[in-house]
Design brief:
With about 400 residues, the chain is α/β, with parallel strands linked by helices. It folds into two domains: about 140 residues, Lyase, Ornithine Decarboxylase, Chain A, domain 1 (Beta Barrel); about 230 residues, Alpha-Beta Barrel (TIM Barrel). The protein contains 15 helices and 17 strands. Strands 1, 10, 11, 12, 13, 14, 15, 16 and 17 form a nine-stranded mixed β-sheet that branches. Strands 2-9-8-7-6-5-4-3 form an eight-stranded parallel β-sheet. Bound molecules: pyridoxal-5'-phosphate.
Length: about 400
């Protein structure tokens, strides 16, 4: 049996412990901490310096995704208000606005509050604001950012919003949310027109237009099927807008769509604005829906990964990484996919760990190796991290706070 001293020396001699680039450059962890605290990371840190699990953004792919979506919608003369529930990051919102976005959508009020606080305008809160306290907050948000829009699908809620806006002497912009088979909303057609008329009749409200989000269409597998499902959904929104105009109610906005349907909905006459979110990152869930050009959806690049470290190798065919359910939140049945190494099969190893079957891995995998994974579902995974490391190649270019992380109220 080995003595304790032999055991410790043996462990220290393990090559992976000595191979990180920070060790080569001589950075201690205390120096890395100081660099991170100053926020002056550019040119100083590399991928190997980052503590894992870490959320990484490949800047070349991210910028290509933003430019592609913005250019596509600009050419088709559609407004672009990407959904910020995907990234929850004010710096990303500002970059999208610089690329031509009219603003960003926020799923919840608390998310919108963070963006407003960080100087992002043109907010559309896509979930109805219900209850006295939320309404108080919505009115406060609107007094800071008068161009904010809120979604409604209920007449009593509309009256409550009007009363609160009147008391605070602000005007609220309300979009009527349509039930187009996705998640929330009022029945399109006459019921929606009647609700828009209520909005228009109240003194402290302004009718902004219609929202129609068809979540079931966005992930329909196969481009032709998806086109059919999305046409059915968005057709109801366009028809409702036509009815409104027929009744003398101007409807300047019909907003909806997603990463999966951007090139379908932007061809529909009457859809004025697209609100895709995931295209900036792309996840495995979206890759599998199929594109207009084949069975894998490749319109946008996978820019988002989670970097992990191999922390254990119980035998030749099993390695364990330090990223489990707390590193890749997902509601999807498929597993994270290793980037740059073929033949690795990931399975959940609990909250903190992932099990890798490495029997057929294209390269050797050892304790201390760093392995990057493309994630199954981007939105809930991003919500697990405080910051996103932005990489140009292997070099860290920036670190962005995910300031609206956890803002689900
Ligand atoms: C209201 C609304 N609009 C747009 C989106 C963006 O969808 P995606 O991330 O699929 O592009 C979502 C996503 O859930 C949403 O809830």
């Amino acid at each position: 049996m080995k003595s304790r001293r032999e055991f410790v020396l043996g462990a220290l001699a393990a090559p992976a412990v000595l191979t990180s680039s920070s060790a080569k450059r001589g950075y201690s962890w205390a120096e890395i901490e100081r660099i991170i605290a100053r926020g002056d990371v550019r040119g100083k840190l590399s991928r190997d310096d980052l503590p894992t699990p870490a959320l990484l953004l490949d800047m070349d792919s991210f910028e290509a995704n933003v430019a592609k979506m913005a250019g596509y919608l600009r050419e088709r003369k559609r407004s672009f208000r990407p959904h910020a529930k995907t990234h929850k990051c004010p710096e990303i919102a500002r970059r999208l606005v610089r690329a031509g976005a009219a603003g960003v959508c926020a799923a919840k009020l608390s998310e919108a509050e963070v963006f407003a606080h960080d100087g992002v305008g043109g907010l559309l809160v896509t979930t109805a604001v219900i209850g006295r306290h939320k309404i108080e907050r919505a009115v406060r948000l609107a007094s800071r950012r008068p161009d904010t829009m809120f979604c409604v699908d209920n007449a009593q809620n509309v009256r409550d919003l009007n009363d609160a806006a009147g008391a605070a002497k602000v005007r609220l912009n309300l979009a009527v949310d349509l039930w187009v088979g996705g998640r929330t909303g009022i029945v399109p057609g006459e019921p929606a027109v009647a609700l828009a008329a209520v909005v228009g009749s109240l003194p402290h409200l302004k009718f902004a237009g219609l929202q129609a989000y068809a979540g079931h269409a966005s992930h329909t597998v196969g481009f032709d099927n998806r086109t059919k499902v999305s046409h059915e959904a968005m057709g109801q929104a366009v028809e409702t807008a036509r009815l409104l105009v027929g009744k003398g109610i101007a409807c300047p906005l019909v907003t909806g769509g997603s990463t999966g349907t951007y090139n379908i909905d932007s061809e529909i006459d009457g859809v004025t604005e697209l609100q895709p979110g995931s295209f900036i990152f792309m996840d495995l869930d979206y890759n599998r829906i199929g594109g207009a050009d084949g069975p894998v959806y490749r319109d946008f690049r996978n820019s988002l990964t989670v970097l992990t470290t191999v922390v254990s190798k119980p035998n030749d065919s099993l390695a364990v990484v330090d990223g489990g359910l707390k590193a890749f939140s997902t509601d999807k049945p498929y597993m994270p996919e290793a980037k740059g190494i073929q033949g690795i099969v990931y399975s959940w190893g609990g909250d903190e760990h992932g099990r890798l079957n490495i029997a057929s891995a294209s390269t050797a995998v050892n304790v201390g190796d760093r392995i990057e994974f493309i994630i199954p579902h981007c939105d809930p995974s991003v919500n697990l991290y405080d910051r996103i490391w932005c990489l140009r190649g292997d070099q860290v270019e920036a670190v962005w706070p995910i300031s609206a992380r956890g803002m689900s109220q």
